[in-house]
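Tip: read the tokens left to right.
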């Protein structure tokens, strides 16, 4: 199969790749590549897989807070969304409670996390257009 790459197609191809590049940057930032928990290949793999797991879990757990923040700020100039650095850290610190704490109902933990996510939102300008 031959792919026809013309100058007019470059912009479209770059745009398709952008989401993947953004995910790589996010993962690299969250992994904090200089600070793995160990020096062996196994410990680096464990850190990587734990980060991927927590990132996916974060996407699921922040949906409700994101919807509430969007509704809350729909009439504002600035849009509110969950601050992903706060949510990632919160989930990382409460992951044991989420999966293993039988003394605290999961609904209580989820409610606590959602309210925590909503306390420190990130603000974005809806009308901002970045020329590329």
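Filled-in amino acids:
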């Amino acid at each position: 199969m031959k792919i026809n790459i013309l100058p007019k197609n470059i912009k479209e191809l770059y745009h398709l790749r952008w989401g993947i590049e953004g995910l790589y940057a996010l993962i690299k930032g969250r992994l904090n590549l200089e600070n793995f928990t160990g020096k062996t290949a196994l410990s680096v793999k464990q850190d990587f897989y734990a980060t991927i797991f927590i990132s996916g879990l974060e996407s699921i757990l922040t949906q409700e807070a994101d919807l509430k923040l969007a509704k809350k700020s729909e009439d504002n100039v600035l849009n509110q969304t969950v601050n992903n650095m706060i949510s990632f850290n919160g989930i990382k610190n409460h992951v044991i409670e989420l999966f293993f704490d039988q003394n605290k109902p999961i609904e209580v933990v989820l409610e606590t996390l959602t309210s925590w996510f909503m306390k420190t939102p990130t603000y974005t300008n809806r009308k901002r257009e970045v020329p590329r």
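The first strand starts at residue 78 and ends at 81. The chain is about 65% helix and 5% strand.
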